[in-house]
Predict the structure.
Amino acid sequence: MLIKRQSEVPSSEITSKDLYLNRRKFLAGAALAGAAVATGVAFNKIAAPSLVATANAKIDGIQKSSFSATEKETPYKDVTNYNNFYEFSTDKYEPAGLAKDFKTRPWTVTIDGDVKKKQVLDVDAIMKMAAPEERIYRHRCVEGWSIVVPWVGFSLSELIKRAEPLGKAKYVEFTTLYDLKQFPGQRVPVLRWPYVEGLRLDEAMHPLALLCFGLYGEVLPNQNGAPLRIVIPWKYGFKSAKSIVRIRFTGSEPLNSWQENSPREYGFYSNVNPNVDHPRWSQAKERRLGEFLKRPTLMFNGYDQVASLYSGMDLKKNF
Ligand SMILES: Nc1nc2c(c(=O)[nH]1)N[C@H]1C(S)=C(S)[C@@H](COP(=O)(O)O)O[C@H]1N2
Ligand SMILES: [Mo]
């Protein structure tokens, strides 16, 4: 039976919680003994002792993208040690360790629903569909923190156009792997598993929507959604489903896991919007990991080029 979970941490609690966790890591890490633990200390310095070593394969032939932000990238060790991946754990520090032995090969993705070319694709074949690009994107979590990540992948539209959606396909649904042996978190009914996300087809076809299989020039670390995920930079982070095994085309709006869990708090669109607060906290500001002062959150997370997708829509209603 589904037990409704208490939702994600309100942003008002984030600073104190992060500092608590910082302190916990700090106490655990002898390497930093003696370092200042003043409240202004950057979170990334403190996270270092828990770093899970990774030796991921490099991706060849990565091209630069004009879509990249020019902001400072969040350090690799933070991007890969502070993760929302509830299939492993609801503790953001735990997926890095728990995902170490996650099996990402063999891995297939089923393409089905309202599409001409229903098929089961091997992930290695998907990765070769187009040239890999580095896309440095801002990523804004609905909980109030943000990161800047050099993802590797190519536009999701490359895969979608090869699948040839039928005219009646108006939406795309993404489903994460369901595997109780590998995902200890799926034994916990925080969400109805497997994790499901959805986009309108025109959103999914927007060139910014990324089919992602790497970061920092190497294949995706497991805790970041290996072997294949989406990254939708103008939407709150939870729209960017990890470890995808199915892409289904449909005529009706898919019910995404978070919306099903708490429809008042999480909508289908979930565009980053500083003017539409979460029922339990403001979305006007965010804290970039590693920084102390909050910064203003930008409409569509600063990706103004997607605005035309929503012209004429009331984004307070369609949150
Ligand atoms: N399958 C799955 N996808 C997921 C999540 C999850 O728990 N399970 N968490 C989401 C949330 S809330 C965020 S903020 C991002 C985090 O991605 P990152 O760990 O690569 O930064 O993944 C999203 N995709
Ligand atoms: Mo998130």
User: Anything to note?
Assistant: The longest strand covers residues 145-155.
